[in-house]
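Weekly modeling sync, notes
Attendees: S.R. (lead), two postdocs, one rotation student

Agenda item 3: backlog of single-chain predictions. S.R. asked that every request posted to the team notebook include the full sequence so nobody has to chase files. The rotation student volunteered to paste the first one in as an example of the format we agreed on. Action items at the bottom.

Example entry:
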Amino acid sequence: MKLLIDFLPILLFFVAYKFAGIYWATAVAIGATAVQVAWFWARRRRVETLPLATLGLLVVFGGLTIALHDPIFVMWKPTLVNWLFAAVFISSHWIGERTLIERMMGQAIELPQPIWTRLNALWSGFFVFLGLANLFVVYVGSGFYEAHQALLAATGESGVDLSACATLYTGTVLDLCNAAQARESTWVDFKLFGMMGLTIAFVIAQTLYLSRHAKEDQQPQALETD
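Predicted structure, as returned to the notebook:
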């Protein structure tokens, strides 16, 4: 249930984008995340810092996207959220007696302290990587930024609704608008499927890593029994 609640804002953003474009999708994501935080509060009478920080970043950068009609702000949000996660994981090396990953998983599995430290560092690096991967897709992989800037230069406008290209433009400008919209859609697909795929692959790799060390921990006990 919790996994579904965590995933819901991203899924609703994706669905809303396919039907109504990025501005409505951003508004839906802000509303869904606010409801998510309210649900956490209703259940526990407290909300952890990271969900609140995520909501704050979405309100600020999503709000800028809606107000200025510029998708680039909401496109930066996943990077900033992932880098915030990385900062929290990194700081836990020096704040408190246990790293964050050990606090999260320590009740389920026992590992030597160096393994917890290494695992925490791997999660930190993964979140940094996700943030960089998102920026790569925005500026290089999808070609969105270049296509969007070309459209703005052709129209002389500061913001464009890419979901309404056919009703706003004709000729060459319509081609530019369609190209920008297609590249924007590539980023949206990456935000859902690409980041999820990378995360699942990382979790699988982590599971294999943990199982290997669990076997190593169990082997001496078996030898002593013999």
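Discussion: group reviewed the output briefly. Residues 2-217 form one domain.
Action items: rotation student to repeat for the remaining queue; S.R. to check formatting next week.
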